[in-house]
Structures are given as structure tokens and as C-alpha cells.
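Journal club prep — side note

Before the paper discussion, L.F. wants everyone to see what a predicted structure for a comparable chain looks like in C-alpha cell form. Sequence:
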Amino acid sequence: MNNKISLKSTMNPEKKLWDFLVDKSIDSNITQSWGYGSALKKLGFRVFRILVSVENYPIIALQGHLTKSSNILLAKISNNMSAGSLGGSSIIVNSKISKKIKVKALKYLFKIFFKFCISERIIKTEIYIKSEDNIFKEILDGEGFNLAARKFTPIINIGEPIDLLWKNLHKKHRTSIRKSSSEGTKVYSNEKFEDYWTVTEEHMRFKNYITSDKYFQKGMFNEFRKKNLCKIFFAEREGKILSTCFIWNFGDTAYYTYGASTESSRNFNGVNQHIHWEIIKYYNDKGYQYYNMWGGQSINDNKTRFKMRFSKNSILVPLDLYVRKFF
């Protein structure tokens, strides 16, 4: 690559070039994958992709989607979306390129992206970046984005020997798991989405919150299971399901994407610790390296502390949500 960099873009990239770029990005995740975008298309979202290359060598790309209609507003990708918004935008950067090329390519990418947003009458767009990525921050600030929120993602290294993973658990988690197991909790996996959704609905009622809707989650489950990209786990006691987790998997990482528990699960100590431990064991046995537990509003909230206790070597990754409004 010479001093004179000739960038080219396409909004109709080849799958093999997209997959190549995702593979070359050290921060790639399942929401940037071709399969994720294809699954969204089948659910009625309008998915767009922009890929930027130098001499046919992919260096940077962006994948996003638009809502189909107001009846799927609760499809939670990055944050709840309003009609006409563009959500879940994720930028993929080839880790082999220099800082100079990265800056030029990002500015070029946004130029194309903004033309698209204005032509499509997009109200707003949302992009997540790593908090410490100062190159992204400077460019987003210069392009009219505003910092809207910060989240914290605990990532557990599960590629170590299982006895070491057990040793690295917080002692309170180990105690809870032993108690849950000794009292008869059984953890298993199957494809009964309706059982998972029954627990999810109960969880939403007694916790008084809304997750992404059944249409979206069931659609993603149906698409991902065809490609072995997901599993649903259950924790059961005395024939009753107490807790459930909807796990996505991609590359070397398993993602704790959605989870729910019944109101009665609070009467049984250790059930939630137990189900996650069995998930870690399962993916460790399959050769996965990381368990991304996603989502925490602060370093010190209960959810973040609970997740970080699954390993003393947990990594807490801060992510910044940037938003730009167009109209």
C-alpha cells in the first residue's frame, strides 16, 4: 500500500470478502457476521452492508439494518429502536492496517454511510465502539455523533483446563453451584423454544421489564440453529424449569444473549450460577475460548458483579454508544 491510497466501496459485497474481513478483525463478533445479517433479512429487516477495500483487499466495513415496520419495535439489537431508525450498526476493521489507513478509510466509510442515511430519510443511527478507541472517538465526534451511554461487557476466558476454570470461580459461586447440584438441579439443553419463552414471559412480568419480542428471538433461534450457531439451556428442579439461557456462538466465543428465570427460582440458591457453570463447561469441551456475558450498565451494578465472579481473570470491556440524528 503506497502513500497514495485508492479506496473503493461497494454496498453489494461478496460473502467471501466479508467473511475474510470478519476473520481479520480482532474485535469481530456475531452481530458483524454475514449470517447475522442474513437472519435479520429473513425476519423482515432491511439489511445493508458497506465494504471498503484497497486494491480488492478488504479493510473496513459496516453492517446495519432498518426496522420493517412499527410492529417489531422491540427488536433489541443495540437499544430499542424507533420507526425509521437505523440500529445495530457495527463497524469491522482489519487489524492488519495502519492507523493512517484506518483514519482515511473510516472517513470515507462515513461519507458513503451518511449519503445512504439521508437518501433513506433515516432519523438516527447508533454505533457501539470500545471506550478506549480514541481514533474512533475523534472521528465520531467530528462527524456529529454524541456519546449517549456506556455499557460494560464481562468476558470470561473459558479456554483453560476445566479444573483451573473451577478454581478461578469466586468462592461464593463455587459454594452456590455445589449447593444447587446437591439439591437436585439438573441443567440440560434442548430446542424447545416455547419452554424458553414461557420462562421469559414470567421473568418480564415479575421483573417489570421488556426484552426483545418473541417474533425476533424465535426467528433468530430458527435461523441460527440451522447453522449450529445457538443453543438454549435450562435449569430444572423437581420437574419445573427455574432458569434458562439463550446462547449464541460464533468463532471462538459463546454469547450469553438472553436469559430469564422464574419468580420461584429465588427460593433455590445457586440455580443461576449453576446454569452458567454448565454452559461454560459445555463450550469449554467444544473448544471455545471465551464466554461473552454482554450487558451491564455500570461497573458496580449487581449484574456486572455476578458475571465477573465467574472468573478472577474476567475482562471487563467498556463500550460506548454513539448516536447521530439526521432529521
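L.F.'s comment for the group: The chain has two domains: 7-144, 153-318. Keep this in mind when we get to the figures.
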